[in-house]
Design brief:
By secondary structure, the protein is of the alpha+beta class. The chain contains twelve helices and twelve strands. Strands 1, 2, 3, 4, 5, 6 and 7 form a seven-stranded antiparallel sheet that branches. Strands 9-8-12-11-10 form a five-stranded antiparallel sheet. α1 packs antiparallel against α10. The longest helix is centred in the N-terminal third of the chain and has 66 residues.
């Protein structure tokens, strides 16, 4: 297949359009991806702050209610029979698994089960005996052997702490607060302790198993990537972490929970966040393909418009090469191609004039006047010389003929 001028023009513009469209598309996708990611991260951090405050408010609400119970007169008596009778209805009303009263020596008496336990070594008991209501981390109960969450409020008499009122909740209780949180269809929330142990998570087993992100760095567990990202951010700091979990890239906004040493994590899947960018990518790709196709078709059209008069000129040149100078070179073009056609027309006119002159000479008409267009016009100059020579020859022939008629045979040209 011959590579015509139109095809060359189409190829050139097609390549140019592909390069420009690709460069613009890649730049647009990169900039939009970064802008979208920055916006999403800022939104997630803001949401993490709000969720942290919400969790803190929920915990404070529970502690406030527990404090109210601890401030009852019957609770302050520190008489176990009186306390137990008063507290039995509160266990179910407040949503606890059980409640207990702890004496200053750390001995706990449970309301429902009737069991006792030495809790003097528990950090939450020590804080409560110092007068600070608090919530424990998820820990293994000394009574049930199951993961639990303990709420503790000091029982005071005057300015003296005389005991601690406990409320025991299921180990997954915090997950009931965080399960409703998250951004997007697959967004989720979780809580980690001051040592990176999971206290709340959509996967309750991870809480009950007391999975620890930092420990899994050493054990090469599934939370290793998250643990490394958390180490880089700094436990308890506010910020974004990116990591791989279960074969997918996650992005999580971390924020400290007020009045605790815990942190909230608002997690999401990077693929979900960038879904809008993928849509934009496909849209830009479709637009780029359409632009390329339209550009190539336009280039073919323009190439055809440009090459058509050149093809016509080629056909005229072929006719002239065959000796046919009876052609029309009129054109309406006002550009360089029009100038080329006009110049070719002048050349054809010159050839046509020389052909007419040659024809007349052949017919014996030596009166033809030929004008050289320049000192480079070899053909015209040669024809002028030839006409002069023929005229001289005819003149001599006439002279000799006349002399012969007159009988003067000595005459020579």
């Amino acid at each position: 297949m011959k590579f015509t001028l139109a095809r060359k023009i189409a190829l050139f513009f097609g390549i140019l359009i592909v390069i420009v469209s690709s460069a613009l598309g890649v730049t647009a996708i990169q900039l939009s991806s970064k802008a979208l990611m920055d916006e999403q991260e800022e939104m997630m951090l803001h949401y993490a702050d709000e969720t942290a405050n919400y969790v803190a408010a929920s915990l404070n609400k529970n502690l406030s209610v527990l404090n109210e119970v601890a401030e009852r007169a019957r609770t302050k008596t520190m008489d176990w029979a009186t306390q137990r009778e008063s507290l039995v209805p509160d266990v179910e009303r407040l949503g606890y698994l059980d409640m207990a009263v702890v004496t200053p020596d750390g001995k706990a008496n449970y309301v429902i089960s009737g069991e006792t336990a030495d809790l003097s070594d528990r950090a939450y008991i020590k804080k409560a005996l110092e007068g600070q209501a608090n919530v424990s981390d998820v820990l293994i109960s000394k009574v049930t052997g199951e993961p639990v969450l303990m709420e503790a409020a000091p029982i005071t008499s005057g300015n003296t702490v005389v005991g601690v009122l406990l409320g025991r909740r299921d180990g997954t209780f915090l997950s009931t607060i965080t399960d409703a949180q998250g951004i997007g269809d697959r967004g989720y929330a979780f809580i980690i302790s001051s040592n990176s142990t999971l206290l709340a998570h959509p996967n309750k087993d991870m809480v009950l198993e007391q999975r620890n992100a930092f420990a899994e760095i050493e054990s090469d567990g599934t939370l290793k990537s998250y643990g490394l990202a958390l180490q880089e951010l700094g436990l308890g700091n506010r910020g974004m972490v990116h990591y791989e979990l279960d074969g997918e890239i996650r992005m999580t906004a971390m924020a400290p929970i007020p009045n605790t040493d815990w942190s909230i994590g608002i997690g999401n899947y990077e693929a979900d966040v960038l879904a809008a960018v993928n849509i934009l990518r496909y849209t830009l790709l479709s637009i780029s393909i359409a632009v390329v196709v339209i550009g190539i078709l336009t280039a073919l059209f323009l190439g055809g418009k440009i090459s058509k008069p050149i093809r016509n000129l080629r056909e005229m040149a072929n006719q002239v090469a065959l000796g046919d100078v009876d052609i029309s070179t009129e054109t309406a073009l006002k550009d360089e191609v029009g100038d080329l056609v006009a110049a070719f027309g002048e050349m054809v006119d010159n050839i046509k004039a020389q052909a007419e002159a040659a024809k007349k000479i052949a017919e014996g008409d030596l009166s033809v006047e030929i004008k050289a267009r320049s000192d480079k016009d070899v053909l015209s100059l040669s024809m002028i010389s030839m006409i002069e020579a023929l005229r001289n020859l005819v003149s001599e022939a006439e002279m000799l003929t006349a002399a012969a008629v007159e009988g003067t045979l000595s005459t020579r040209g």
